[in-house]
Amino acid sequence: MPGLPTILTGIKVLLIIIGTGLLWGLGNFVIHPLASLFDRSIQGFILGNGLLLSGAFVLYFGGQLYERLELLLTARFGTPAEMMAAWRCLWSKVDTAWLLKWVWNPPTSRRPGPPWLNEGKPLSPETCSSGGHMPRSPELPRHPLLVPPEPEFGLLQPRWGGKCYEDEVFHVFLINHQSTPLFAEISDGESLSEVSEGLCFRSPARFITPSGKVVFDGRRHHPPLEPVGLFYEGCAQVKLWNRDLYGFLGRDSFQLIIPCEFEFVGRFSEGFAVALHQGRWGFLTRNGTFLPCPKGVQDRPRDVHEGLAAAKRNQHWGYLVPGSDWQIPPRFDYAGDFSEGLAPVGKGTWIESKFGEDQAQFNGEFWYIDHQGEAVVPGRFLGVSPFEGGYARVWPADGSGWGLINRKGIVVLPPCYDKLFPAYDSRVPFQRKLHRPDQPKGPSEAIGFALLPSGEEQLLDDLWEIGPFSEGLVVARHRNGKWTYLTEEGTFAFRSEGQFETAYPFREGYALVRTSHL
C-alpha cells in the first residue's frame, strides 16, 4: 500500500487536473458563446473576469476538500498521537491563508504531531500534539542501566497550557528565585517552554522574554516560520510554516542566518549542528557550511562534545571530528558523549523489550575511554553516566544499585541507590528503598542528601521524590503530592511546603511550574 505522503500527493494532482479541466470547459462552452453576443472589448472583460472567478471558486473548494482528506487519512493511518490531533482539528475553522499555502507550496508529508525535537527523550504527558513535527532520526535505545532513570521534571522542553480536562484548568508560568510568578495565566491552547539564552517559546510560533514581551512572531516573518527548538549558541531551529525544511534563526537579528533547506537539523553544540542534507548526514557551521560525515555513516550522529561526535557505521560506534575523519574508529556497541575528557562506551547486544526502545536492555558491560580511545578508569560496569564535577554514577557488576566513583575508579558512594543525581557542593541527592520495622507491608523510600567525602546521609522527611540540584535549589515532591523547592540544607526555599502540580529545575534564574484549579 502506498504511503500517506504519496496518497496526498496524488489527491492534490488530481484536484489540480480537475480544476484545470473545469476552467477550460467553462471558458469554451459557457463564457465564450455569451461573450460572442457583444463586441470584443466586452468579450475580453467578461472572459477574463469569468475565468478569474471560476478559478478562485474551484481552488477554494478544492483546497478545503484536500485539507479535510489530509486530516481524514491521517486520522486513519497515522500514529496514535497524530490520529488524536487530526480528529481534534478535523472540524476546526479553516485558516484563511490556506489558499496561498496550497497553491504556491508543493505537497509535503506534514502531518499533525509534536513540533519539538524529541532528541530521544520522553515528552511530558501534557505535551501539545498539534502543529508540525521534526522527523525523528534513529536513536540508541535507552534502558534503566545506561543512565539513571529521568524523573518527570527532568525534561528539557516541557510544553503545557490551557484546559487539560473538562473540569480542571491549570495555569503555567515562570517563577524567579523569590517565587514571584511572571505569568498570571496561560490561555487555553497555548504553551510555554523553559528559558534559554534569555528567551522562551510560547505558542503559537513566538519567542518571548521572561517578562512576557514578544520579540519574535514566526507567523509575521517572511517567509512564515515555525520554531522547533530553543536558542543554543545564538541559534534556534526553525522550519518553514508548511514544509518540512529546516534552518536556523539568529538570536540577535531574529532573521534566518541559515536557510531552511535541510531535512533535519539539531541544536548547535561547540559551533556545530547535526544536519541531514539531500539524504546525507553531516554538520553545519555557524556560517551555513555543510560538512558531510565520512562515507558509511547512515544514522544520525550525536552532538559534538569536546571536539568529537559519536557516530555509527556498520552497526558500530566510534568518534569523528566534524569535517574530518574518524579519530576513534567504530568498534563499540554503545558510545556516549565526552565529558571532562572521558566518555562511556560499551560492548554487548541490545535486548528489545515489549515496552519499546525506552525500556530496552543492554546485555554487556561499559567502561570509560579518553580521546585516544584508551580505557583509563579501572573497572567494568553494568550501567554508567557521564562524569560531572569529577564524579560519575555507575552500576557495578557486583552492586545492587547506583554508586559514585571518581576519575581513578575509587568508590565514593556505595552502589546501593535506586536513584542518584549529580553532586552539588558536596551534596548528592538520592532515593533508595528502606526497610522499616514499623512498615511490615514492604519497603519505603529513603530520600535525602549523601554528603561527600564522608558518605553520611542526611534524610529528608515527608518527601515522595527528589531531583537534581539546579542553581542552588533542588526540586522535590512533598507527601501531599505537590512539588516544591529545597535549599542545600534541606529546608523549604519558599513559604509554602508544596504548591505546584509540576515543577522543573531552575535555569537562567527562572523555573517553569504548573498549578491546577478544579
TrEMBL record:
Transmembrane segments: 6-30, 42-62
Region (Disordered): 113-141
Keywords in alphabetical order: Membrane, Transmembrane, Transmembrane helix
Organism field: Candidatus Ozemobacter sibiricus
The UniProt record lists the keyword Repeat: no
Pfam families documented for this protein: WG_beta_rep (PF14903)
Name of this chain's protein: WG repeat-containing protein
